[in-house]
Amino acid sequence: MSLTNEQIQNKLVEKFGEAVTNFTEPYGMLTFEAPKELNLKVLQFLFDDETLKFRFLTDLQAVHYPNDKGRELAVVYHLHNLVDNVRIRFKVFTDINKPDVYTATQLYATANWMERETYDFFGVNFVGHPNLKRILNVDEMDYFPLRKEFPLEDQTRIDKDDEMFGRGGSVN
Amino acid sequence: MSDVQNILLPEGSIEKKTITLNVGPTHPATHGVFQNIMEMDGERVMSSESTVGYIHRAFEKLAERRSLYQVTPITDRLNYCSSPINNIGWHLTCEKLLGIETPKRVDYLRVILMELARIADHLICNSILGVDAGAFSGFVYLMEYRELIYEIYEEICGSRLTTNIGRIGGFERNFTPAAWEKLERFLKEYPKALEEFENLFTRNRIFVDRTVGCGPISAERALNYGFTGPNLRAAGVDYDVRVHSPYSSYQDFDFIVPVGTTGDTYDRFLVRNVEMWQSLSIIEQAYQKIQNIKGAEAEVYHANVPAYYLPEKKDVYTSMEALIWHFKIIMGEIEMPKGEVYHSVEGANGELGFYFISDGGRTPYRLHFRRPCFIYYQAFEELVKGSMLSDAILVMSSLNLIAGELDA
């Protein structure tokens, strides 16, 4: 019998109690978050549990929310249970001043380059990663380009300001 | 070999017994710009370190300043051997976020294009594998049909390689009679060429000896490395996004998902060949289904979503209303729901995913491309360690590495 989002949620709450929070289902995909110290425990539990079987890491990346103080960077894992064909999304948030998150490379070989890419663009420091260096950008680069404080265009331009479109506020 | 050194080198000047060999960044065998620094002991690869990023173009950053339609040309440049899959995958992601349902006929037209793109991609991969193994003729047999596929694209969207095909909700115009004619010609002629190609390779003693056992990977390792697509199926896992999470009405089609056993170069080759046959069958089924649609629906080529679908060009030039909508849609001034969505399609070399976070603004807040090629390329070292250099070249070729997709 296939696995429902509710069953997954119950399993997780049973195991981690209050630590796993913010369960939502945007477009049908169960999404939740956990403290960053627990990320490996949650991933390991999802991997090992005989009913959950989330053993395929589809994707790993980060998102930058500059206005969310203390939890500016979100590391997002997309996991897939190939047997029951269920996907979930798991997030951990970290302070941008101390962006240390445990690496998932021991569990998933594929996390190696994904984490390198995330480090490259967001500066998330994956603790325990065997080879954490830049992958797509040049080694000499001294900033993390996908963070929101790096504008793509000249900020003195006014013709593309959102003000023009009735939304107000400045451009990211 | 005598102990006497026959080159007049100072004593102790030879530091190591292995040779460092650079395969790439520009090397005929890499078929793209990426580098492998190999440590060689004679002909054997002791270790290999891959360097990617030579054509990194910051697509994810660019996408944060572009409205939905302006992102489509970016997706062209991911896996440029099968651009329509990327374009349609992106449009499907937008449709999922915006909650747009497409008519069946649109789905089938999309299926035809995506399967043509899959064939174009696989035929290049397999025939170039032949070239890398020293058999040039198979490539010449099939290349003609990629040209024909590109002509079909051209009839539909006006361009060939970076197609920028379609719109949110469907296509910018209906398939022209010339496009159907070319498609019929393709369906008639391609099977013969593919059969000839298979006859040249599948039971060819030299080719089989070269590829069997070359760069194998177990199903377990392949899953752990995040393999998807033909490379994973060659290892024996029947995971196909078209079957697992059907999009664009793939559930209406009858096709098999070929799997291999050992995950070596030969299995990857065979899986791709069978997939081409399956794609042909899917295109035929879609063609029949479209023929069976009668009445008013037989001319439908886009969903009725004027808020997201660009108005026709002739209206834009003549009517004020259409011009306003054209401007609004291009500038991204449309109703964008807040939310995050992950959508994936079965790209030619694996699961191509789009993780799209919208904050309700004009552009994506964050857009991440799950590029199959980038993810499985990291297994390359494990695949070639201890093998001969010439085998490493074949493994690289059979993985179907596309530099555009590696680097995003």
Automatic annotation (TrEMBL), chain A:
Domain NADH:ubiquinone oxidoreductase 30kDa subunit: 34-155
Annotated family: Belongs to the complex I 30 kDa subunit family.
Membrane topology: Peripheral membrane protein
PANTHER family in the cross-refs: NADH DEHYDROGENASE [UBIQUINONE] IRON-SULFUR PROTEIN 3, MITOCHONDRIAL (PTHR10884:SF14), NADH DEHYDROGENASE UBIQUINONE IRON-SULFUR PROTEIN 3 (PTHR10884)
Alphabetized Pfam families for the sequence: Complex1_30kDa
Organism: Lacibacter cauensis
EC number(s) per entry: 7.1.1.-
Name under which the protein is recorded: NADH-quinone oxidoreductase subunit C
Function statement: NDH-1 shuttles electrons from NADH, via FMN and iron-sulfur (Fe-S) centers, to quinones in the respiratory chain. The immediate electron acceptor for the enzyme in this species is believed to be a menaquinone. Couples the redox reaction to proton translocation (for every two electrons transferred, four hydrogen ions are translocated across the cytoplasmic membrane), and thus conserves the redox energy in a proton gradient.
One GO MF term attached to the UniProt entry: quinone binding
Taxonomic path: Bacteria, Pseudomonadati, Bacteroidota, Chitinophagia, Chitinophagales
Any one of the GO CC terms: plasma membrane
Subcellular location(s) per record: Cell membrane
Subunit structure: NDH-1 is composed of 14 different subunits. Subunits NuoB, C, D, E, F, and G constitute the peripheral sector of the complex.
Catalytic activity: a quinone + NADH + 5 H(+)(in) = a quinol + NAD(+) + 4 H(+)(out)
Keywords attached to this entry: Cell membrane, Membrane, NAD, Quinone, Translocase, Transport
UniProtKB/TrEMBL annotation, chain B:
Catalytic activity reported: a quinone + NADH + 5 H(+)(in) = a quinol + NAD(+) + 4 H(+)(out)
Pfam family, one: Complex1_49kDa
Keywords assigned: Cell membrane, Membrane, NAD, Quinone, Translocase, Transport
Location relative to the cell: Cell membrane
Molecular-function annotations in GO: NAD binding; NADH dehydrogenase (quinone) (non-electrogenic) activity; quinone binding
Topology in membrane: Peripheral membrane protein
The enzyme's E.C. designation: 7.1.1.-
Keyword Phosphoprotein in record: no
NADH-quinone oxidoreductase subunit D domain location: 132-407
Domain of life: Bacteria
Enzyme superclass (EC): translocase
Cellular component GO terms, alphabetical: plasma membrane
PANTHER family: NADH DEHYDROGENASE [UBIQUINONE] IRON-SULFUR PROTEIN 2, MITOCHONDRIAL, NADH-UBIQUINONE OXIDOREDUCTASE 49 KDA SUBUNIT
Protein family according to the UniProt entry: Belongs to the complex I 49 kDa subunit family.
Known partners and oligomeric status: NDH-1 is composed of 14 different subunits. Subunits NuoB, C, D, E, F, and G constitute the peripheral sector of the complex.
Known role: NDH-1 shuttles electrons from NADH, via FMN and iron-sulfur (Fe-S) centers, to quinones in the respiratory chain. The immediate electron acceptor for the enzyme in this species is believed to be ubiquinone. Couples the redox reaction to proton translocation (for every two electrons transferred, four hydrogen ions are translocated across the cytoplasmic membrane), and thus conserves the redox energy in a proton gradient. NDH-1 shuttles electrons from NADH, via FMN and iron-sulfur (Fe-S) centers, to quinones in the respiratory chain. The immediate electron acceptor for the enzyme in this species is believed to be a menaquinone. Couples the redox reaction to proton translocation (for every two electrons transferred, four hydrogen ions are translocated across the cytoplasmic membrane), and thus conserves the redox energy in a proton gradient.
Stated name of the protein: NADH-quinone oxidoreductase subunit D
Gene this chain is encoded by: nuoD
